[in-house]
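User: Could you write out the 3D structure of this protein bound to adenosine-5'-triphosphate? I've included everything you need below.
Assistant: Certainly. Input first, then the structure.
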Amino acid sequence: MSDQPVIRTRALTKRYGELRAVDAVDLEVAEGDVYGFLGANGSGKTTTVRMLLGLVLPTGGEVEVLGLPMPEARSTVLPQVGALVEGPGAYDHLSGRLNLSLLDAAGPDALPRAQRRRRIDEVLEQVGLDPGDRRPVKAYSLGMRQRLGLASALMRRPRLLVLDEPTNGLDPQGISEIRTLLLALNAAGTTIFLSSHLLAEIEQMCTTVGVLDRGRLVLQERLDTLLRPTGLVAVHSPDARAATMLLGDAVVDVDGERLLVRADDAAGLNRHLVGAGVRVARLGPYERDLEQVVLEASHVEPAPRRDRVEVLT
Ligand SMILES: Nc1ncnc2c1ncn2[C@@H]1O[C@H](COP(=O)(O)OP(=O)(O)OP(=O)(O)O)[C@@H](O)[C@H]1O
């Protein structure tokens, strides 16, 4: 592994008239990362991804992919990058297999025919499509089209995969299969940069998270750092007021019946509260999840719990 970032941007900016769709973004994706690029719809993810691939020209700042400047080094960089950008394009009247074959044949260094055939079978199986399926792509569901897009991104055994909303249109089973596939590719050495508005998806597979909020990168950190222990204990008590009075400055936050208390010893805290006649319904170490971290970074009010998973949509 080299120390050089696989993706690096400096003050990357895209303006559309008055709108700063992407505003001074400094991304850093290390080799071997699964980098989750989170943001609400319209926050600028797709525009950023397109700039990484040289499909949209920045109005300011710099992009380096695999150590080379984009879009200048496009012809060297892109053959080493597998990309799936919103709405994977395909010839609707042809089968998935034929689409892959044409796509590869059109590449700068197309594989010999027999090798291409083998590789197509391999990638179709990898993404869960039947290599024998002769139906035209127009008969495909959105999920199948998404899988086909991923298959074409994999044809060249890329060093880097750049995927914009790769699980779009997939059901939970499909999402889980794609996650397993991406993790296997990553374990075999592929760096993965994927955008998503699904917190749960990012939390389950990424090593590093970047959060875009109205064009600005408001957070970029390793997931294990973000989710490390807080040193706080969450206490749920119907006597929250009494507990707050008893504990004084150790209480750092009160939200209804839930208190956050700075304490090293949860069991000791429990004894202290119960000994003073405070009823304790539940007590345990306070662990932030990614949703809370992202909401704090984005200064957005939490959504109702039922929207938990898709809170950024
Ligand atoms: N070609 C364009 N001309 C004008 N404005 C644009 C253009 N492309 C994107 N925008 C605007 O830039 C902002 C960022 O859009 P972008 O598609 O990058 O967001 P996103 O995070 O990918 O959202 P989504 O998940 O909905 O695709 C939006 O306000 C969008 O309307």
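DSSP finds eleven helices and 15 strands in the chain.
User: Perfect, thank you.
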